[in-house]
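pls ignore typos typing on phone
flavin-adenine dinucleotide + seq
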Amino acid sequence: PPIIWWIRRDLRLADNTVLEAIAAKGRAVVPVYVFDEHERALGAAAKWRLGQGLHALQQRLQGLGLGLTLTTGDALQAFQKLCAETGADAVYWSRLYDPEAIERDTKVKAGLKAQGVEARSYAGRMLFEPWTVETKTGGAFKVFTPFWKAVRGREVASLTDAPRSLRGLDHWPRSLTFEDLDFSSPMNRGAAVLARYCEVGEEVALRKLSDFCDQSLASYNESRNILAAQATSDLSDHLAWGEVSPLRLWSVGQAGLARGLAGAEQFCKEVIWREFATHLVYHTPQMISQNWRPDWDAFSWQDGQGDDVLRWQQGQTGFDLIDAAMRELYTTGKMHNRARMVVASFLCKHMMINWKIGADWFRDCLVDWDPASNAMGWQWVAGSGPDAAPFFRIFNPETQRKTYDGSGNYCRRWLAEGQEAPPQTALDFFEAIPRRWCLSAQQQRCQTMLDLAAGRARALEAYQALRQNS
Ligand code: FAD
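k done
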């Protein structure tokens, strides 16, 4: 009997432990995607990106003579129906580690088993599953450097190429169409723009990794923080949707280390930051939506005056680096890592707005949204997380701009106002935004919304008060 491959965040054929297991058994595979409540609730850009990724996977599967079945509703019920229709007696999937996914998968597993259907989950999304890395005393890690030291010399799985052939069915189950599922969402006015910046699929991911290895890995240390340089791998959305395995990035990093490339160790470390985020969230799932440090519940976050938060979201704070970065986010669904740290610090510290508001906005706008990396990133910046940046380290957006965008190219790329002939990138923002935002490229550059020194002093005072009271 065939085996159902329940597709979630593993939109690839290479290094796919589920497909390897099915192929090893010599059984036919039925690839299935279920658009259930959990998927429907994704942020706007992430949902759109998932739809694009599934499209690309469908084409790859077609190349192998395999059909992709798209269905909707409750996953367990969907599998009951599909097992009856195809004669499948097993459902396999690749594990996810965030609390909502674990809850869903546990239910589905129990339900399938109760009906006598084999249910099996596999590793593959991470290099090291969260429970396989432990401190010497047996607990979870809370600090990155010891985590890094614990894993950097570990053996990892071997790479496996995409299978040349897989057994399929003579008659594929009836599938819904992409239009039926509707991956669009309120942000969709921007979808056409997002599409200009977003290449999808496994083949693209592998090509980007190879280009990065040839062109940028050696100089990664010097260039990765230069905002305009585009010197990082740009693979985060491919990793988020499983179009490339972390194993591939790790092996490129390790091969670079063996060749003595200066940037290779730092690149390996970044891959491990992703592992660390998943490790943290697996062991303290509440950190997705709550302060990792409970004493932070007493911090005196502000509501923000009037449309302060909206100005931050719209890239209308008056600070060039913040505004350029927020527009890059809205236009492309991504933002440079350094810029993510600076805009997050501005919101949490200068504006004193709760990090959860920023994390929610990122959740809606990022095509590379990952529940663990997003929560860790925000709590790291805010100061409420484990191994967080010290609160007194408040990024000054102007100093950051001078240091990391000395040429001004990044800000010019994303800010149209004041430029005689703004580049298409900056104009794209105005095409992408909702009409209700009422912004135009012809308007004047807005005034700065706050005084940096006063904002910094207010934040430090609030932090002192928190420390004294806890
Ligand atoms: P590269 O420099 O090429 O690094 C390779 C890979 O390592 C990345 O693709 C990514 O998977 C991983 N990585 C690198 N830096 C980090 C990091 N600091 N934390 C975790 N993984 C990392 N990343 C996401 O994938 N999804 C998110 O939702 C997300 N939210 C963030 C929120 C905030 C506030 C901050 C500060 C960071 C966030 N990051 C998130 C991490 C980081 O900004 C992106 O992974 C990075 O910008 C991706 O660019 P790249 O692929 O070119 O990275």
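Strands lie at 3-6, 29-35, 69-72, 90-94, 118-122. The chain has three domains: 1-124, 126-157+189-283, 294-469. more later
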